[in-house]
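Is this the right way to post structure tokens for a design question? Let me know if I should format differently. Anyway, here goes:
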């Protein structure tokens, strides 16, 4: 039984996808992408998916990647950061109350701790794939992002709105000098190629 921290990201991704129950599902691609990119995140968020208990991790693997045998570390993390707020925001907008939404909320919050566009830190092939994932699992939140703001910025803006913190320099985004930073195309390759491949293990 291997420790996922000992496996290279691409190797771990192929291992996950070789056990995927639904290899073409966006949920599967997102979970595998986040779980295999811990090396790209700060140490406090380097767990496959941060702040899931060991039992929750085992339930996720058993459902989405049955037969996979890995030692999953339990990393609780620190209180007082924004991680739990992102999870709570996502879960408040979950399209259904199933465990998949819970796992995905933690996965998205984990990926938010990366340094790239959210779709890249989730190992998804494009921003469109992330939009489709949000439409499937957090429909009401996707509807709130009607202007297609970059997702990481949108999530943090929503947290600021909840806390009644004014972050925009202008009464509307279109007039703000940061508008090009928050909207528009997001270029760059996905960090993980989302194509299932068998692993000879």
């Amino acid at each position: 039984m291997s420790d996922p921290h000992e496996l290279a990201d691409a190797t771990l991704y192929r291992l996950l996808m070789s056990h995927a129950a639904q290899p073409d599902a966006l949920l599967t691609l997102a979970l595998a992408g986040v779980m295999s990119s811990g090396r790209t995140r700060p140490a406090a968020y380097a767990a496959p998916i941060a702040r899931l208990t060991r039992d929750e991790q085992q339930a996720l693997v058993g459902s989405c990647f049955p037969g996979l045998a890995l030692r999953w570390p339990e990393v609780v993390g620190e209180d007082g950061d924004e991680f739990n707020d992102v999870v709570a925001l996502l879960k408040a907008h979950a399209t259904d109350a199933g465990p998949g939404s819970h796992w995905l909320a933690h996965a998205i919050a984990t990926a938010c701790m990366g340094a790239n566009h959210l779709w890249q830190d989730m190992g998804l092939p494009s921003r469109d794939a992330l939009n489709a994932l949000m439409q499937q699992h957090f429909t009401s939140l996707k509807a709130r992002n009607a202007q297609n703001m970059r997702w990481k910025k949108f999530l943090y803006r929503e947290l600021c709105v909840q806390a009644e913190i004014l972050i925009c320099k202008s009464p509307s985004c279109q007039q703000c000098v940061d508008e090009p930073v928050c909207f528009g195309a997001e270029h760059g390759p996905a960090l993980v190629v989302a194509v299932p491949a068998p692993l000879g293990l």
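Format looks fine. Someone answered above. Worth noting: The first helix runs from residue 9 to 18. DSSP finds ten helices and no strands in the chain.
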